[in-house]
């Protein structure tokens, strides 16, 4: 390809390659340090690279195992009825292992494999001038040129070809011309369509797409549009910050996995700014710092994030923390992560990003300093995000703490949400006890519908109906108002309260409190009933569950859970599934309490985690209109009003 027409000034390809090499990192020095000090990462990288070299990848739809995807891959094939298969294949994430393995071993087969695949992709996926005028909807469809894939390739994987191979004889002038022609056209298309797709800058896709535009402009300032692209992308990332990062902390979509991804993307932008000598605004840096806290708040004491919405129960709070460190030179979030996640797991996750560190030796030494330490924390244990309508309440900052995340946001922000108004996720005594089910998949199928449904969450339904209509994987029917309207620390108990109107004229209020750092009290107050069936679902991360006269008992080798409820209702034990990663689910049990009511009803649930064979006794009794009492070590009195629940300990 004649690249002269793409440049501000005519220069030879040889000179352009020389200019590019002057901007690349000293990869030989970095790889030598990683090889010497991070042997586990080196072994894992080479193992993964070998699998990728022979064409075996894990992708959505493959069931969590590697599958032969072609050698070279068939870039245009959709398998397993899963669009994500094609999209993620065309992000070339497997190149990262191949390129890092090349830098670590200097075995040319890894680098040559990437060059061959890149040239094959360019030849297979035709990127022509007419694409710029295609209808906007084309760039949302299932093919390699969807806007998001244009962005991800441009910031995440294609630049790694430059970093790892740009200094070598594998990256010839001819390869540079092919590379630049392809990345130029992708960025040109992205610059046009991305702001049209995301005019409010309120989605993680726009953030990644701006990162792709920025990265191209920084690596190739010789391009005629480079200055405009750079300015547009920086402004776009700033807009993303204002539109997406809430003042209370938490990315606007309310999904912890996507939030942690955003901490990576916003942090990577700052790393690029450091490397290429520009700055983001003070407001950007303040919001980024504040939102790093949510990565820790939304982390279960057992070390996996709560998979509310389209989230996975993973350890990527550590990824957010490492970019907080690299952007801000601050170990706070990595230190807090080691309180809840095994330190070696944190160090392993952080080491995966060592290649992006501007000073890999300092990163390694600082990571080592976190070993065998408890990071002291003065952060509050009661968290309320008023924008996301999420409450996160915990007893402390260690792995045995009790913690719950409680959510009620209606109307939703976007269709990454699930039908989970007033659902919650609960952990205690080192055990995930009542869990959000996670994503499982993005496919347009019954699995997706089930995992997003209300009855797969720990919430209340009327007559078995979802809170609002599920239409398709990313489309819901209309929603009425719902909100978390109060979160408070009241001394011996911390409480969160919410309501929603999606069953109007029936109105549901739920109050949920952590009491004496020992147990959970939940009141469901439902008004406007006319001989309606009321179901309360609890999705338990247990397979050993028994119904009991007062509720249900769940047992495991780690810790047990006793569920007490009043009034006594019909108890159903139903199969459940919980998913931590794509396409893989483990068996679980859903407990359903059901009764038929008229007028107003207040339903009490007490969740008591315990260890050992002795089941704690909790005897609930009504003591007046809207009041209950029970004993658990001492006597507790609960009073329910229209919009609140108060708990006292009578002398």
**Mean pLDDT across residues:** 96
Task: Supply Rg.
Answer: 26 Å
Note the quaternary state here.
single chain
User: Could you name the CATH class of the largest domain?
Assistant: Mainly Beta
The CATH architecture of the largest domain would be Distorted Sandwich
What is the CATH topology of the largest domain?
A: Beta-galactosidase, Chain A, domain 5
Low-confidence stretches: none
The biggest beta sheet is recorded as: 10 strands, antiparallel
Hey, roughly how much beta strand do the residues contain? 15-25%
Q: Domains counted in the coordinates: how many?
A: 3
Shape: elongated
Strand runs, count: 23
Helix/strand-derived category reads alpha+beta
Query: What separation lies between the terminal Cα atoms?
Result: 85 Å
* Number of contiguous helices: 17
Helical content class: 25-40%
Summarize the structure.
Residues 74-321 form the Heparin-sulfate lyase N-terminal domain. This protein is an alpha+beta fold and 651 residues long.
Describe the structure.
With 651 residues, the protein is an alpha+beta fold. It has 3 domains: 1-244, Glycosyltransferase (Alpha/alpha barrel), CATH 1.50.10; 249-378; 382-648, Distorted Sandwich (Beta-galactosidase, Chain A, domain 5), CATH 2.70.98. 36% of the residues lie in helices and 24% in strands. It is built from 17 helices and 23 strands. The chain has helices spanning 13-23, 27-37, 39-53, 83-89, 94-105, 108-124, 147-165, 173-197, 204-219, 226-244, 256-276, 282-297, 317-328, 332-340, 343-351, 360-368, 446-452, and strands at residues 56-57, 67-68, 382-385, 390-394, 403-407, 423-428, 431-434, 460-462, 470-472, 475-476, 482-489, 493-500, 507-515, 519-540, 544-548, 551-555, 560-566, 570-581, 584-610, 621-622, 627-631, 635-640, 645-648. Strands 8, 11, 12, 13, 14, 15, 16, 17, 18 and 19 form a 10-stranded antiparallel beta sheet that branches. α5 (94-105) runs antiparallel to α6, α7 (147-165) runs parallel beside α9 and α11 packs antiparallel against α12 (282-297).
């Amino acid at each position: 390809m004649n690249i002269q027409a793409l440049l501000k000034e005519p220069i030879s390809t040889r000179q352009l390659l020389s200019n590019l090499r002057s901007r690349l990192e000293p990869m030989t020095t970095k790889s030598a340090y990683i090889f010497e000090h991070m042997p586990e990462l080196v072994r894992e990288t080479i193992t993964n690279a070998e699998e990728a070299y022979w064409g075996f990848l894990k992708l959505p739809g493959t069931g969590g195992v590697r599958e032969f995807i072609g050698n070279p891959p068939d870039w245009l094939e959709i398998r397993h009825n899963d669009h994500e298969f094609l999209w993620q294949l065309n992000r070339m994430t497997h190149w990262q292992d191949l390129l890092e393995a090349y830098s670590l071993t200097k075995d040319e087969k890894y680098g040559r494999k990437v060059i061959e695949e890149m040239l094959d992709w360019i030849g297979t996926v035709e990127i022509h001038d007419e694409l710029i005028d295609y209808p906007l909807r084309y760039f949302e469809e299932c093919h390699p040129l969807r806007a998001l894939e244009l962005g991800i390739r441009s910031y995440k994987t294609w630049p790694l070809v430059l970093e790892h191979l740009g200094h070598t004889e594998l990256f010839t002038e001819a390869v540079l011309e092919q590379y630049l022609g392809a990345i130029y056209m992708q960025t040109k298309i992205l610059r046009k369509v991305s702001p049209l797709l995301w005019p409010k800058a309120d989605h993680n896709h726009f953030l990644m797409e701006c990162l792709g535009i920025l990265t191209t402009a920084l690596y190739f300032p010789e391009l005629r549009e480079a200055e405009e692209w750079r300015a547009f992308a920086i402004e776009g990332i700033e807009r993303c910050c204002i539109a997406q990062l809430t003042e209370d902390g938490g990315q606007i979509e309310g999904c912890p996995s996507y939030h942690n991804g955003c901490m990576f993307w916003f942090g990577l932008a700052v790393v690029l700014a450091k490397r290429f000598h520009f700055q983001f605004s003070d407001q950007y840096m303040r919001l980024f710092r504040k939102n790093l806290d949510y990565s820790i708040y939304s982390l279960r004491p057992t070390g996996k994030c709560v998979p509310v919405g389209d989230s996975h129960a993973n350890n990527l709070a550590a990824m957010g923390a490492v970019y907080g460190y690299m952007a801000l030179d601050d170990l706070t979030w990595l230190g807090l992560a080691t309180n809840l996640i095994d330190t070696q797991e944190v160090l392993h996750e952080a080491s995966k990003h060592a290649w992006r560190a501007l000073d890999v030796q300092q990163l390694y030494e600082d990571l080592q300093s976190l070993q065998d330490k408890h990071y002291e924390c003065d952060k509050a244990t009661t968290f309320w995000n008023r924008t996301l309508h999420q409450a996160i309440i915990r007893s402390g900052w260690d792995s045995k703490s009790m913690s719950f995340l409680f959510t009620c946001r209606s109307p939703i922000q976007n269709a990454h949400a699930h039908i989970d108004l007033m659902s919650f996720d609960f952990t205690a005594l080192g055990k995930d006890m009542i869990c959000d089910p996670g994503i499982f998949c993005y496919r347009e199928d019954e699995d997706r519908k089930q995992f997003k449904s209300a009855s797969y969450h720990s919430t209340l339904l009327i007559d078995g109906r979802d809170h609002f209509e599920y239409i398709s994987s990313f489309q819901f029917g209309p929603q009425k108002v719902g909100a978390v309207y109060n979160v408070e620390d009241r001394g011996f108990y911390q409480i969160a309260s919410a309501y929603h109107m999606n069953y109007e004229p029936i109105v549901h209020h739920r109050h949920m409190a952590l009491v004496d750092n020992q147990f959970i009290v939940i009141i469901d107050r439902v008004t406007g009933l006319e001989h309606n069936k009321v179901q309360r679902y609890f999705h338990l991360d247990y397979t050993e569950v028994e119904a009991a006269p007062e509720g249900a008992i769940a047992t495991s080798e780690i810790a047990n859970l006793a569920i007490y409820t009043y009034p006594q209702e019909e108890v159903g034990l139903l199969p459940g599934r919980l998913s931590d990663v794509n396409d893989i689910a483990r068996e679980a049990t859903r407990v359903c309490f059901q009764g038929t009511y008229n007028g107003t009803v207040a339903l009490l649930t007490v969740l008591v985690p315990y260890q050992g064979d002795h089941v704690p006794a909790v005897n609930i009794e009504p003591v007046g209109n809207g009041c209950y009492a029970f004993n658990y070590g001492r006597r507790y009195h609960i009073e329910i009003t229209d919009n609140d629940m108060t708990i006292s300990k009578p002398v």
